[in-house]
Structures
1.
Amino acid sequence: MISKRLLHLPGARMGASLLLALLQTIGALAEVLLLPVAIAAVGRSLGLPVPHALAWLPGRPGPLAALIGGLILVRLLTQAVAKSVSARLADGMGKALSQALYLSVFDPNRQEDDLGVPAQTLARLSTEGVKSVVSYFTAYIPALVQTALMLVVTLAVLLPVSPLAAGIVVIGMVALPLASKPTMGENIKIQLGQLRKYDKVGVHFEHALRGLNTLKIFGADQRQADDLAEESEGFRRITMGVLGGQLRSLIKADVVIYTSLILAVAATVLIGQDGPSRVLSCLVVALAGVRLFAPERQLVYMMHSGMVAIKQGKAIDDILQARQGGDEKSKAPGTTPESRKSTGSDVAPEASLETSEVAVRESDSEFASKQADQADMSGDDSLGISARDLTYTYPDGFQALTDLNFDLPAKGHVGLVGASGSGKSTLAGLLSGRLQGYAGELSIGGRQISDLSREDLVGLQTVVRGTDHLFTGTIRLNLDPAGLGYSDWELQDALDQVGLTSLVQSKGGLDAPIDPEGGNLSGGQRQRLSIARGLLRRSPFYIFDEATSAVDREHDATLAALMDALGKESLVLTITHRLAGVRNADSILFLQGGRLAESGGFRELVDAGGGFAAQWKEQAQYEDGE
Amino acid sequence: MRTGSDDMQQTTGNLTMMRRMARLMKPLAGTEGKAILCGSLGHLFAVWSMMAAAAALIGLVADWPPLNGQWVVWALVAVLTALSRGVMAYGEQYYNHEMAFSMLRDIRTTVFDKMRSLAPAGLRDQARGDMVTVITNDIELLEIFYAHTLSPIAIALVSSLANLALLTWLSPWMGLVALVSYLIVSLLIPILSARPTFKVAMQERTAQANLHSLLLETLQGRTELAGLGALGNTRRWVGAATDQMLNARGRTSGRTITNDMVTNVVTLICAGVFTLMACYLGSAGLVDPARGMLGLVGFLSSFAPLIPVARLGAGLQPTLAAARRVFSLLDKEPPVREVESDHGNPLTEFTGEEARAVSFSYAGKTDTGKGDSGKHGGRISVLDGLDLSIKPGELIGIQGANGAGKSTLIDLLMRFQERSGGDLTVSSLPIETIHTVDLRAQQTLVSQDTYIFSLTLADNIALARPDASREDIEQAAHDACLDDLIDQLPDGLDHLLADNGSDLSEGQRQRIALARAFLSSAPFMLLDEPTSNMDALLEGRVLTRLIERKGDRTCLIVSHRPSVLARVGRLLTLQDGRLVSA
């Protein structure tokens, strides 16, 4: 079973796999040849008649030992060469696949956000999946090809000794796959079922693990454990089913192997013409025969891992194809389609490695170019935001924004408020370039946002969301994930502005560890750290999207003051559903049902007595109750 | 010096671990015995068929008394043993895997049970990707130990002893060479290859787990990283982890291939030496033709059972590395001991929860050697001398600065963690004596890390009470202000939600968590920032509904929102490790 789709994967080199097969075959030839040599030599010394074909063997111990040593040396050399070929193939494939699968995802020029598959699946395919696919090329294909080449070896070894036996063994080798063919389809079906079940059980375990805290609260974890135990048992049963099928193929293989050998020996004894020397001929046939069949028998064991590899390889290919399709659709200029296609089997890995180097170099200049951009734009006094008849409709037909018109100055603190579903997040998404394809105009510093590249936008603005991820590592790493190398003083200053100085000190400084997902910080601390991370970027435009939802009251005031101060140097857009948070904002945009219902200063809006005033009144009624 | 003692430790560690792994399989010893029997016979049949064939052939043409005229018998033996070899091989593999897969099923269950007992407090410092790796990959690797280690060793031992006996009977010299060969292949090679291989195998496992966790994190946080202009750096970062893994993987497979190569070549050298010796024995007349030929044929085909043993040195290492990770999880001390229903106190009603002088501290991380003059004595105190009296039917609000210990307080009240000192009672019973099942039935929590399963909305809510009627679920959803979500979802309550509710907003997820709490019939509800992601109007509506619908239930709300705290019956502030009236 060779899957064509796998052959086109990045880094796959069929040539190397074939070379491995050839090397293994030569090694096997040397190993098998040892048997007739040993049997004839010992037979002669015991006084048994030696067949013509082996009569040339040296009788004296010296040359005999040299011959045996030579054969062993051939075996050693082929294996040593095979080792380095296989290592190079594995390394090249590993690099090419990781580049195509996930390193390319971190390309700053990539436009779309969609990974195509859940992060969990991608992570699994990138580790186990790649390993399995690589072994398909370094072990499975070579074994498969070697099995075919063994026919030649068989003829080379057995033909001189007993042509009849050689014929019978070759027939046996060809017949072996046929013997297991009738049950093959059935086996594959069970195997596929098993692999599906494997995925299902894996996903189930993962979900149970992630939801374990929730389950425990309701005492539902025991039930879940029982379900999982039952599923594990089901998985065990179907795995045994797969194994049973495989083992039945093994029995069939053994029956075919030994029947052919018995027939070959019988034929040599009964029809052979060598007279008494038939004894040694027969022994050569029997002993060498078992070895000649060995690779084919081994293949039965490799069937399952081969199937797994094909499945993983196809999943990887699906992702790459989907991305290629997506790239072509969005006509992203940054990604070179050649690296994906990899049609020429030998050129592909070099090509994709080259692209990866180019990409890395590009990313090195990422920072520099951004700085340049930033300087450009911040020097430009017209860096305000303006919207004209801005309308946005989601792909599913939901019109989230309708005919928005507003102008924001280059500096100042602007509040964006409204109830859930009023379009706040959609507007933020459009401003940050996360959502694309708006109608009307939306410009920043006079340039349409749709004309700016993702990288340009990133250089201009910083978006801080209340739900932003923190990363496992240190505080320093979380403040400076881009590796820009801020000084300790700068980092301390940012922490100080969000009131985290004493916490960081108590944890042991800037290099104190942060647990997975910020587990060792409270919700408010996580949010304040995210804000500090944003502050360090000193961008001309900030969007704070519910960035302080979990911050406690003591720090609420600190942060509100921070926003106002930040508004003196940059344009700060604060999105919140708590109207008190924008009390001191220079101006407020109030959205209702996707339309800009009201805008103006806080007092102005409250005095106007419109929707904003009504909401303010209702909130104040709750908040002032204390 | 240091590496030497490290190696020693590693070796003893491995032996202990293997003993521990072996102990787990006691209940399945019978299956293992069958596997060993079938395997030994299978390999012996393969050898015997060749020897019998040789005997038959020699008996047919040569004139050697013991075999003379008996060639038909030997030919029959050869044919029968040859044909039954496959059946025996089948039995060996079948029983081996029967044993191994039953073990894996049981270990999976054990590991999940362990994770249950650790959650939530004991798992916070574990990377999620890492735990997933343990429960899937690592456990799977144990299969190599259970299916491909013990029985192959036993099979190699049994069949080699039988072969040795036969060869020694044929010629003591042959027996001697065979003994030395067998020892080299099945003892010397695995022992020599074990140490260097272990390190690289362990490195590969660790590197792969690291990359897996890193990928999960950076892929999920990609939007943030992109927004911070950090993609280029992240790629370097992930690229370095990839290189590390590929290198480790390359080294491991290099070791494995080298090990195979050495095994193969050594086997061939043994065959060569045996051949030369047999030639000498023959020409010196020390052995007769039949014995000499039988011995040669037997020896040449007798290595098959030894090869898997020689490979163990390399093959077993990844398994041991995986086992180490599995066992280190199993050895973690759970933060609380669950109280089973065969001892301790049952709890049938909630008549209040009381804390007297409760304190909580945890061991601080002592990895920074400089500057810190251990004035906390290595422990960090979170709560100290905390008093709290919760009466049935009360609505209590708790506020406090970030990091003041609000979440820890909830953990203690729910008994997810054990307090370090003081008294804590539920319905006047010490909390640590109450049956865990009963405690869960009396208390429920709306936590901040609510997980949404990929089930229907109704099933997600029903998690709190599986026997709830449709009406109960609808009512709970209504009480949690989920009506608009139900209207919005194509199949309403029966809509299948995405994994962890990724298609829902945070506020919607919080309301689902509330609906679960409403549905559970627990009389004491703890709510940890239940409305933090809702807008003010929705928050107001949800709170109003909560107060209306709570009936005689007791509620404790942790929040920092004035709008929430304004509506509680009694407001407390958590400050300096204790609660004070606000």
2.
Amino acid sequence: MTETMDKSQTPVVVRIENLVKSFGDLEVLKGVDLEVHRGEVVVVLGPSGSGKSTMLRCINLLEKPTAGRIFFEDQEITAPKTDVNKVREHIGMVFQSFNLFPHLSAKKNVMLAQVKVLKRSKEEAERVAIAQLERVGLGDRLDYLPSQLSGGQQQRVAIARALAMDPHVMLFDEATSALDPELVRGVLDVMREMARAGMTMIVVTHEMGFARDVADRVIFMDGGYIVEQGTPQEIFDHPQNERTKDFLGHIS
Amino acid sequence: MKKSDRAQRATAANERLTLRDILPKAFSLMLAFALMAPCLAGAITVDNTTARPTQTTVGNSVYAGDPTRVTWECVVGENEEVSSIFLQYPEGTVFSNESYARLTALDGLDRLEVDAVDPIMADGTVRIEFKTPLAPGTRLRVEMYFVALPAPAGGVVITGSYTTRSGAVQDLPASPAIEVVGKSSADAMVAWLDEQPWVEKWNSVPFLRTFFKPQLIVASFPSLFKGWLRAMALVLIGFPLAIPLGLVLALLKIGKFKLTKGLASLYVNVVRGTPLFLQIYIAFFGLPLMGITANNYVVGVIVLAMNSSAYLCEIFRAGIQSIHKGQFEAAASLGMNGAQTMFNVIIPQTVRRVIPTMTSEFILLYKDTSLLSAVGVMELMMFGKSLVANTGNITPYIVAACYYLLVTLPLIKLVNVLEARLSGTDGGSGGKTKAKKARKSGKKLLSAISPVPLPGDANVAQDAAQATAEPEVAAPAVWRPDAEPDLSLTDAGHEMS
């Protein structure tokens, strides 16, 4: 995999060191280390409760780590005086439940943060919004309200909304899990296209096909640890860890 | 003839002037007086005119065309004696066969005998000749009985002239105006009802007469209209003032700062934990004791607004907290700060959700304006109260109830439609048919509110509604910015299951 080799030489976008996260007495992450390079697509697999989503949410500080450090492009964002909003500007996130703003049209959903956070002019924000919505195949749905769109379309609007902020990394938190099977493909196609375009992506998913096709690296998490990682071929075809084997055995 | 006349009058009203044999008129007494009288200061003054309210209808008004008693008073100037008075009532004044005049003269508190010929009444004028001229400083009261007044613009003003002992004729100063109300169609209808046999029959039933007297229903509606306008003004000014106040309180309560949070909670709990009636008493009797005096309506509006803001605070708080936490997270993930999230994402969604409960609160506040009648603010209830006091009949209260219902019934209907629409909506992915159905029913009425289905659980809106219906029960906290670990725990738990 020459492509993978190339990407490991690019600068590190996200580095996680010994990340621990507890909710009360419950320790969900027990010490996670991870480096994600620019342009890399990392797919995180693992059973429910393994801590994948929590790890993802720690990266843009939706969860406050209990211990450990997270770096975003050489800046330690777990440092006490970090401007959290500033960091989040550059980290796009796509949620399982879309979380579109229901009172705003697709276009306005994509425009809002551009205008408020990036201080772009309305005209520029609109131009970017239209371009991003066209990119995700919704150029004809600009003025639709979220309620007038299918789940898959809503998720694509959510992706466009994140992309419009020019993120340096995109986090996908089970982006297709809430979708009807026939709508999953549209969203995955958009994600594939993003990967081809060189976007750095950390993807929590249960879509094994997507992981196999698109991932540069697959991470398998269980019990709050990363138990195994490698190329899709390594993980899917020759898993080393028993729990990985067990998990993949159940899935496929 | 004179004697019998006198006896007759005396029985009719014993205070009537007594007639005497004509005394020879002294002519030349003080020529100087006659010459000087016109230029003397302290000529006759007219200081009081009143008309007794007519009885045919409610209220304290004098109605045009109803026979009434009109009183006119003057004080003779210091340096003159008055030998005759000519009173001119406005055009349209009608004396009937029953009409008569009664004269009273007073010197200070002592009654004087009035020595005059019978007043001559014709065409709205009265001429009174005094056989003994009125002495300087005498107060003369002329009461005209059974006079039907017209209703000229500016009120009824009595003018005329008088003659001094010396024979000089002077104009009387114009009297203060008497307010006379023209007969309205309601009055005409009352008069018509008075003559209907079925009305008589209806009124012979004590219950119907006491609560639903037709004449009073007809007469009360126009009288109470003014009160209704004032009640509307109180709530239409008070409620919009309460909205920003309630929003600020809600944001403080949700916010992170312990001190402002505590103060807002204290305010809301104290206001919601005490009767509005008591708050009104404190404001209306307490402020004057502190030397603060303000217009009753201003104080009333302020008390209503302050009271309502506490309830609105809880409505807004429940509304904001009913917004799915994903909305906060999505905004945060885009780098939006708390204020940007609140004003661009959360509050616009909250507005739609809280409109039904806010409308309910508006209804409550509108009804609560009636409590201001306890401290004498003239509003709908107070107008009804005075009519009830005047008539000894409950019907005006029933009419007042109609005025309250006039506003509350359509609003209650509106709340029902809004709530049906809200509970029919669902998150973006599901519940579409329900949303569409609800939209269909609500759209016509609610073109002002764009038909956007709401995210999250449909029950949250219901929860918000219940939070107002039973203020003690707090709405479930869906999102608490100061308690993130809790939320995440639920999230993690969800993921584990």
